[in-house]
Amino acid sequence: MKKHWDIFKKKDQGIILAISAFFAIALLLINFFFMKGRVDEVIVTLVNIVSVSIFIMPAGLIQYEKYKIVLDIEEKFPDFLRNVVEGLRGGMTLPLSINYASQNYYGALDPYVRRLSAQISWGVPFDTVLSNFSDQLKSKIIARSVSTINEAHRSGGNIVDVLESVTKSTVEIEKIRKERASRISGQMMTGYIIFFVFIGVMVGLREFLIPALSWDAASQSEDSWMGTSGQDPIDAEAYGTMFIHLAVIQGVFSGLAMGKLAYGSIGAGTKHATIMSLMGYLGLVIAHAILA
After folding, report:
1. Is 122 found in the same domain as 202?
2. CA distances for 254 relative to 51, 60, 167, angstroms
3. Is the residue at 185 inside a domain?
4. Mean pLDDT by 10-residue block, N- to C-terminus, for the chain (292 residues)?
């Protein structure tokens, strides 16, 4: 069984980020001291982008993996509550019904449920166990649900009704989130189209407009007379490199914005940010290679 919860360990995250930072800095130093001025500027730019990607992407992927795990946990949480309610209706106490519910499988939630059951069997106070359970899951939805369950348990209310209400509210929240994601899918497609238009404009500027302006400026400079100088020629290569940087930056932030709009999490946009930034870079490089 895959250990989904390892991604939450700060030690593991620190190792991954330290390794990525080491390789990114090493690649940047090699590029700056050994490659710059000796190879084509496009290759230097590509190496810089790869270096920054090595530094940034692991952190983004960790956040995206966390988001997916929390999403899976929140989807399975209502199933766990239903099984607890089933045990309570069968005449079990709350600790026994939790132990009964822990015998089922809940995907990414499963190790936390088993740990919850084990702590209850060891005699850890129920309120403490639920608080630890909530803290480990790092989910706002589950944190609110657990807080409600804890208050009902302390006050001696009807725990079955409380659990059923919490289950219904969690299911409704999940439905709303999926509905938002489905509605925003059209806007995400629009975002990709706008990005492609942006790349097309960058290609047009780089391959047609700037070379034409550069040629006109050079002609004016040659036709100048009596010691006066005309307009300085435009450095088309410098503009080309700048456009590549703009395309990558636009792709990264557009992708992150899509994740925030569709799923309420910037980490969820890491996938779109990676795709769009790579497409922007490759689009400009390939267009330059074909049209140059």
Report:
1. no
2. 20, 14, 35
3. yes
4. 51 80 87 77 74 78 80 87 86 83 87 88 82 83 84 76 84 80 78 90 85 64 50 68 85 84 73 84 82 72
